[in-house]
Amino acid sequence: MAKSRLDNFLHGLGNATEIAQIQGLIVSLRDTFRIDHTVYHWVSADGEQYGFGTYDPKWVQHYVDKDYLRVDPVVLGCFQRFHPVDWKMLDWSSKAARAFRKDSIAHGIGNQGFSVPIRGPNGQFALFSLSHHCSDAEWSAFTTKNQRDIILIAHFLNQKALDFEMERQPEPVRPLSPREVDTLTYLAMGYGRSQVAEMLLISEHTLRAYIESARFKLGALNTTHAVARALAEGLIVVGGAARAAEGGWPGREEKTPLRA
């Protein structure tokens, strides 16, 4: 993207005083990049969705009606990531994910995509995504060339959305108990629920209670979201050994963390 066009976009974004102006800028951005779609998507802790972009309104309503938020590999995958991701790198292996992909392509979303996960104050989560119909080689060349500009645009868009929608900002998270910290830490490290229950010397039923309690405190949609938000807030740290739980497994060999 030419520097002058990027500067004009950011200048227009900074001066925008209503959503309609941002929508116009998003459309012009799509045309500048010569791709099918550009979309900003904010997902609140209670599952409410907010945003603007160039998707067909029929697809947007269809997405809501089908409750695709629960199976969308882009949203679920970006919960676990802090860096931009090409959609091809996400997990599309499940039957629900494959059906979603087929449906989205049929609605003109494109066979290629690239998303920037955005984390704002108090665990706010949003995405800025671009999609297009083209070959893998063409898409790789496009994202390599424009990645820095896309990241910059994503964060400026999110700041403007926060300015416009102050009431949507999440409340500060409540502190987690030591057991809730242990539970989310081991899950973030890649252990399964049965393994975590064994390590903490508790039943899986009790473990579920800790997970649900932590999820409620974090305002998370699901366990993956709870882990992602706890990491983003610095409530858990993965990379060293987990805090030794009372009666737990000090000195146990650490498992290699999953890629964030």
UniProtKB/TrEMBL annotation:
UniProt GO MF annotations: DNA binding
GO biological process, one term: regulation of DNA-templated transcription
Keywords from the named record: DNA-binding, Transcription, Transcription regulation
Matches recorded under Gene3D superfamilies: Transcription factor LuxR-like, autoinducer-binding domain, Winged helix-like DNA-binding domain superfamily/Winged helix DNA-binding domain
Record-linked InterPro entries: Sig_transdc_resp-reg_C-effctor (IPR016032), TF_LuxR_autoind-bd_dom (IPR005143), TF_LuxR_autoind-bd_dom_sf (IPR036693), Tscrpt_reg_LuxR_C (IPR000792), WH-like_DNA-bd_sf (IPR036388)
Domain of life, per lineage: Bacteria
Record bears the keyword Transcription: yes
Limits of the HTH luxR-type domain: 169-234
Protein name: Regulatory protein, luxR family
Organism this protein belongs to: Cognatiyoonia koreensis
